Amino acid sequence: MLDALDYSAIFLTFKLAGLTTLILLILSPPLAWWLARSKRFYRPFVEALVALPLVLPPTVLGFYLLLSFSPDSLFGGLWMSLTGGTLAFSFSGLLIASIIYSLPFVVQPLQSAFVNLDKDYLEVASTLGFNSTETFYRVVFPMVLPSFIIAGALGFAHTIGEFGVVLMIGGNIPGETQVISIALFDHVETLQYEQAHVLSFTLLAFSMTLLMFIYGVLQKRQKRLTNA
Amino acid sequence: MLEFDLIKYQSQQLLFHFQGAIKLEGICTVFGDSGAGKTSLIRAFAGLDNSFSGLLNFKQCQWQSKTSFIKTEKRRIGMVFQEPRLFPHLDALGNLQLACKKASKSLYTINELAELLDFSSLLGKKSHQLSGGQKQRIAIARAILTDPQLLIMDEPLSSLDQHSRKLLLPFIKNVSKSIPIIYITHSMPEVFYLSQQMILIEQGRVEAIGEPQTLFLNPKLSLAKHAHSGLLLNVDSLTWDKDYSLLHGLVDNQEVLLTVDTQPSETSLQIKVESKDVIIAAQRLSGSSLQNCLQVSIEQIEPLSAGSVLLTLSTGKQKLLAKITLKSLTELDLQLKQTVFAYIKAVSILGECL
User: Fold this and answer.
1) How far is the alpha carbon of A123 from chain B, nearest alpha carbon, in Å?
2) A225 CB near a chain B CB, below 8 Å?
3) A219-227 vs A91-116: helix axis angle to the nearest 10?
């Protein structure tokens, strides 16, 4: 059935998704908070920028990332001088691309949770003597915890499913950039349908379970928490 | 002292201008019509509305000036909002424990408050499992547990059941001996029961600050319309007459009789006498069923509308109002300073549950 390369692809995929989710769960809350509360005139611009990966063909994103990863470009050059390596066709490059590509899937659930969070509770928190940091971890975070799990799960699932961007910037290096979706593509091209079946069904079952957990359990729980 | 001079503009129009000073002892009520700006005033005190400019001094502390603004969390204010605003993700106990996080000490412990406000059995319940009155009692406990140097309450009892009101009113009065309270209310009985000091808000301004009875009797203030319906009298030295189910009490040393079903626990209470329920007689009446008669002097005669006048009557320290016809005034030839007899047809008792 599955060979060592497949297992290495599965491991790599989960490593990539796990790291991406972790980093996004650190970066996204402040951004989502700002998007939910800010009245600055340039907020729609930032919001559109974050949402771009939702509508843009992954290849477009991949193309621009590839350009910026080149050692001749500003970003790629800086990376080269700092680490001595190139980003294109490397795991680090894949990680950066995944973070950008999955950003809206993590930011948006958080943003909508923050928008729905009644300002009244923040006022109460300040009368209990909490400054904004304390308010965030003592009140806001526990109140929107289900949305944090939803955001993480969506970011994770979406990273696992990415194909176009990986193809553009990662190529197909086993153990470094060959993720499940690419391995699957390889199997189909070489007519190894049995392996393709196993990989496809694994992804299908995994995604379905995760989405059912999100829509069936987490969203209800969040609603109960903030509408009580 | 709490001194304030706070201004708020909205689209270049002066919306609020609150100016005044209050003593920080006991309860200071904030009274006024809906939309007059009561809630805006206390939100400015609490620092929850930073669109106010001006000055705000709490004792020696400058909470707000041209160049400074102390944030709410640094003002150490306990706040009870109109709605309880319990955190929905925590149970009652969790809400109360959260309030203790930043408090170094507290007037009461959680258990004492649970006992006093009768919510011991509710500590494990979440907000959505509690009734409005239960939530508000917990919200009041939560505000007290923050060890505030000022407690602000925005109509905390306005939507509550009798049980909660009866529990909370004496409790709040008691707390005010240790923590100064600013208390918004629509209810005249609450003003008289709770406070010695009142801020009257009218159309975005402080119209007057002073003792409630004095303000209610001042015909120049917007309060006159409330007072026309009647005033409150304090009755003390209550004794209970079981045979007639009657309560004997004194209003400035003159006896009054009140019909009540059960013996009250308090030794004093308040009655409201509607101005239309007061009958004026030049001499004592004999052979009538009227039980309550106060000897009073006429302090003021004020025409109300065509055909009726409002008399302000003094029993010594306290005052009551009587609405009589112009015809009666002329026929009895009533004069200022004249001593007359005021017969009271009906009273409503407020002391027990307002």
Assistant:
1) 7
2) yes
3) 40
List, in sequence order, the alpha helices (H) in chain B: 38-46, 72-75, 92-100, 110-116, 132-145, 162-175, 188-194, 212-217, 224-227, 326-332
Say if residues B65 and B119 touch (Cβ distance below 8 Å). Answer: no
> Which domain does A121 fall in, by range?
4-227
Among the partner residues A128, A145, A228, nearest to B146 by beta-carbon distance: A128
Same structural domain for residues B272 and B217?
A: no
Do residues B217 and B85 share a domain? yes
CATH code (residue B290): 2.40.50.100
Alpha-helix runs per DSSP H in A38-140: 43-55, 58-69, 74-83, 91-116, 119-127, 132-135
B317 near A CB under 8 A: no
Residue B299 counted as domain residue: yes
Q: Give yes or no for A116 touching B (CB within 8 A).
A: no
Q: What is the CATH number of the domain that holds A163?
A: 1.10.3720.10
Q: Which contiguous run of DSSP H or E holds residue B346?
A: none
Tell me if chain A has a CB within 8 Å of the CB of B90: yes
Whether residues B271 and B207 share a domain: the answer is: no
A143:B88 CB<8 A: yes
Cα(B95)–Cα(B114) distance, integer angstroms:
13
d(CA B140, CA B110): 12
Pair (B124, B22) in one structural domain: yes
- Is residue B169 one of the residues assigned to a domain? yes
In a domain, B114, yes or no: yes
- For residue B88, what is the domain's CATH number? 3.40.50.300
Residues B290 and B223 in one domain: no
In a domain, B80, yes or no: yes
Nearest-Cα residue of chain A relative to residue B126 = A228
Number of domains in chain A: 1
Number of domains in chain B: 2
- How many angstroms from the chain centroid is the CA of residue A37? 22
Domain that holds residue B170: 2-227
Distance set, CA B27 to CA A118, B135, B211 (Å): 30, 23, 11
In this structure, are residues A160 and A154 in contact, taking their beta carbons and an 8 Å threshold? no
List the pLDDT tens digit at each of the 354 positions of chain B: 999 999 999 888 999 999 999 999 999 999 988 888 999 999 999 999 989 999 999 998 999 998 899 999 999 999 999 999 999 989 999 999 999 988 888 889 999 999 999 999 999 999 889 988 899 999 999 999 999 999 999 999 987 888 888 888 889 999 999 999 999 998 888 888 888 899 999 999 999 999 887 888 777 787 777 767 777 888 887 888 888 888 899 988 899 988 887 777 777 788 888 888 899 998 888 888 888 999 999 988 888 878 888 888 998 888 888 989 999 999 999 999 999 999 998 887 765 544
C-alpha B197 chain-centroid distance = 9
Contact list, B103 vs chain A (CB under 8 Å): 129
